[in-house]
Design brief:
Blueprint lengths: L13 E3 L7 E3 L4 E3 L3 H9 L11
Antiparallel strand pairs: 1-2, 2-3
Length: about 55
């Protein structure tokens, strides 16, 4: 994978939630967050998101 940040909006697992406090969701990891899920995964694990899958 390249050194560029992952764009969650182009990921098949990304979705927008109805929760104002946590508007971004990731179906692959099963969580909602205020930031983009890839940023949350990067901060928590120290590695880039390993479940990114481009939308068709």
């Amino acid at each position: 994978m390249t050194n560029q940040p992952i764009n969650c909006i182009k990921c098949a697992h990304y979705y927008v939630t109805w929760d104002r406090n946590f508007p971004n969701g990731c179906k692959a990891y099963g969580f909602k967050s205020a930031a983009r899920p890839s940023v949350t995964v990067q901060k928590a694990s120290g590695e880039a998101c390993m479940k990114y899958s481009a939308k068709r």
